[in-house]
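Help needed: design a sequence for this.
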């Protein structure tokens, strides 16, 4: 079964950036905007979590796979999306509006990260910024050998805002998270495997069948037992996450109203080095 209709909750008239497929007990969410390297937007967040809402109460689905079409899993935020520009009548109102939007993202992403079914991420090509934040919401991440990972937000003058830094810190530790987040440095699949971002690396051509075989292996087990194990591990690993997400929304909202962000976006669009003033 393949469902390519727009996800419930998407903006009226917005194109479908992803689709839902089901084959037996395996559901697959496919990021399907290859011409933009699956660049992320508020609408992408609306659509993926709306699909997660569908899956949540479907007892026929035992495992969820998230994969992407084209050359990249997700190359980061789409800088050209006009609906992603947050405005306000004053700097204070603009900060408030960013804060509330980030809180909305955190609330909606909880639907995906807390699905009762295990979520497997099949990652290839670029997995940058928002892409890495989405990938970190998976229970198990399998990478193709061509994958590249990064948190490039400081290079455009903004903070990490969707909780990926805290999920990364929980998985790989604060030191590696800070190294990646402070520098914006890209790492290859083998480095991501070594430090624990992904659990396996396979040849690019083997990625989809390998993840499908893993999904089938998990789906053959007792679903209530698997879901209970997921809840228990998540309860341990995500202690304090809700409080940290509220702090992240408040901290990031200020930075998204800075002059450095304006300069960072301008420089990226112009393919020039940014000149940050710390304002």
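Sure. Designed sequence:
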């Amino acid at each position: 079964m393949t469902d390519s209709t727009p996800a419930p909750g998407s903006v009226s008239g917005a194109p479908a950036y992803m689709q839902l497929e089901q084959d037996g007990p395996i559901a697959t969410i496919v990021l399907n905007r290859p011409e933009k390297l699956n660049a992320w937007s508020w609408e992408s967040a609306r659509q993926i979590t709306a699909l997660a809402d569908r899956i949540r109460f479907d007892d026929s689905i035992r495992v969820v796979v998230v994969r992407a079409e084209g050359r990249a899993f997700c190359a980061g935020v789409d800088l050209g999306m006009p609906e992603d520009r947050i405005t306000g009548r004053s700097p204070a109102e603009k900060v408030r509006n960013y804060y509330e939007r980030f809180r909305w993202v955190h609330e909606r992403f909880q639907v995906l990260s807390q699905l009762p079914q295990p979520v497997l991420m099949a990652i290839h090509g670029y997995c940058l910024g928002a892409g890495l934040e989405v990938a970190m919401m998976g229970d198990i991440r399998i990478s193709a050998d061509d994958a590249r990972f990064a948190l490039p937000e400081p290079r455009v003058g903004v903070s990490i805002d969707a909780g990926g830094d805290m999920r990364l810190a929980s998985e790989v530790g604060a030191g590696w998270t800070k190294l990646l987040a402070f520098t914006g440095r890209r790492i290859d699949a083998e480095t991501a495997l070594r430090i624990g971002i992904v659990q396996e690396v396979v040849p690019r051509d083997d990625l989809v069948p390998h993840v499908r075989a893993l999904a089938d292996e998990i789906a053959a087990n007792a679903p209530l037992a698997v879901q209970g194990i997921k809840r228990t591990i998540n309860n341990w690993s995500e202690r304090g996450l809700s409080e940290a997400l509220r702090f992240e929304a408040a901290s990031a909202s200020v930075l998204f109203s800075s002059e450095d962000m304006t300069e960072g976006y301008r420089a990226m669009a112009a393919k020039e080095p940014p000149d940050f003033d710390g304002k």
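The chain has one domain: 2-270.
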